[in-house]
């Protein structure tokens, strides 16, 4: 996914996360696995932002995730994660996220994302996206 193709997606949330010293590895940069934690944190913050309300008792499950790295990150600093939502399906939607350093916002350090399925935790089966969630992605 390139930044240009993000124009096809709807921007839905921006999160800022500090880079912690413990996020770095022996090479002196943020470990590749930590990028997935950053993406997860921003995704959960977006979920909290949109609220559960009428959708209480329903959950999301990540069925696919990826991350492409473009530039290293290192402590100290702060990152900005821009979250975009793709067109929703019956019970799933795509999320694409850009990771940038807050002090150099024109530089994309990584692009990652996930395919998320809306599920009923009682049955473990997919369920149609609630209309209120669908609306957030298409309006």
From TrEMBL:
The keyword Hydrolase applies. The keyword Cell division does not apply. Pfam families: 4HBT_2 (PF13279). Keywords: Hydrolase. One of its GO terms (molecular function) is fatty acyl-CoA hydrolase activity. Belongs to the 4-hydroxybenzoyl-CoA thioesterase family. This is Acyl-CoA thioesterase. It comes from Oxalobacter aliiformigenes.
């Amino acid at each position: 996914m390139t930044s240009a193709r993000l124009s096809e997606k709807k921007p839905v949330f921006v999160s800022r996360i500090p880079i912690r010293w413990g996020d770095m590895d022996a090479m002196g940069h943020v470990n590749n696995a930590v990028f997935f934690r950053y993406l997860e944190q921003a995704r959960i913050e977006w979920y909290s932002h949109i609220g559960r309300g009428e959708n209480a008792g329903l959950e999301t499950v990540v069925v696919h995730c990826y991350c492409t790295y473009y530039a290293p990150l290192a402590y100290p600093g702060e990152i900005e994660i821009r979250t975009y939502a793709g067109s929703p399906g019956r019970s799933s939607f795509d999320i694409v996220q850009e990771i940038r350093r807050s002090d150099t916002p024109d530089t994309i350090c990584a692009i990652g994302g996930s395919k998320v399925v809306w599920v009923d935790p009682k049955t473990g089966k997919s369920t149609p996206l609630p209309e209120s969630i669908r609306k957030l992605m298409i309006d």
